[in-house]
Every structure is written in C-alpha cells, then in structure tokens.
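[STRUCTURE TOKENS]
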Amino acid sequence: MRDSRRPAPCNSRNPPGPHYMSDASSPATATAPDMLELAALLCSRVCHDLISPVGAIVNGLEVLDDDPKPEDREFALDLIRKSAKTASARLQFCRLAFGAAGSSGAQIDLGDAQTMARGHIEDGKCTITWNLPRLLLPKNRVKLLLNMLVVAQHTIPRGGTLTIDPVGEGETMSFRITATGHNARLPQNIAELLSGERGPAADAHAIQPYYTRLLAQACGLTVTLAPEGAAIIVTAS
C-alpha cells in the first residue's frame, strides 16, 4: 500500500523539527511532532529514566515479603534506600528540566539547579565542576542548562567530568559545558538534532536533544555540540 503521509507545512504552530524517513531509502521533508506527540514523547523519556530505580524498589520489597534471612533483609533494605534516593533525585531533576517550573516568566535559582544536577548526574562515574554564580535566571534558560547537561553526559558514556562555565553575565547569561572522560565521543545524530539538520525520527530517545533545541530557540540561542581536542563542548550562544 502506498504511504499516504505528506510532509507537514512549517509554520508557527508546527516549527521545523527532526526529519522523518518515508521508507528505508528515500528521505522525506522535515516534520515536527505536534503538541500532543511532544508531550507524550517527553513523558516516555521521564518514565524511561524512572523505570530502573522504581523496579529495584519493587524487587527489594519482594525480597522482604519472602521473610528472608537477616543478611538478605539488610541487602533488600539497602537496595530500597539507594533506589528510592535515585528515583527522588531523578524526579526532582525532571520536574525542573522538563516541567512547568512555575508560572510564565518565573525565575529559578541557579543554586537549586546545581543541587538538582548533582543529585541526578553525579553517580560515582560522572562528576560536575560548577563555575556558575548563584543568581536567578529566567526558567527557560535554567531548563536549557539542565538539558545541555544531559546532552553532555551522553558524550562520556564511561564517566568523566562535566565543567559548566558562564558565557556572558546577568539574565542574558548562556553556558558552555566541557565534557572530558575516557573515550569521549559525539553520539550519533545528536549534533544534527540540536542544530535542526537532518536527523532521526523524533522518538523517546531523540526527543531530549530535540527539546533542548526548542528551549534554545525560546531563549534566542543556538546549541552546538563539537569536539575540541580530547573533550566534547556543548555551547549555547
């Protein structure tokens, strides 16, 4: 059966987004997820981040239900404690990075953003060097920063350091994140999704860098991802 889909027109309600493929060999015109699809994909992304720690809590409770030996009981309780802490940190981060985070025009304390970022990202393999001053910034700029951190984290899959430096100052401050670590690399298609060039279809895995680009556009900025020596640099400017 012939594919009846047609490229959606680009307008203010349907901004340019990731390029879809009509089949395995021929590219189609770029289309963007509509508002309902964008919301669904972001929810899928959040659920993906929470499945692992919540599942570990369930496993720990099942061990306790079996009336285990004292050493098994202590292991289960420790698993529940650690997993609950991880789930809480991820929820708080997602609430700030993807949620409404206050009313329109609200500002967010960069100190709070630092706390959320450390709780979500620092896991024994990855550390953060935070060189930003503590001040209030428009919420979309703070959301942009947190999403840039997620992008940067993906460039050091074996762990390393994320160094965040300011670009400019005051309410118009933007950010530069330097990712260093063993085998730092550019994840496939992420740079294209950030720039708006040809990339994969918007799915639950690709939606986060796509959303990062939307946040940058809302702030009047552009996000770039590029190697610099042995490091990978994520910049909003």
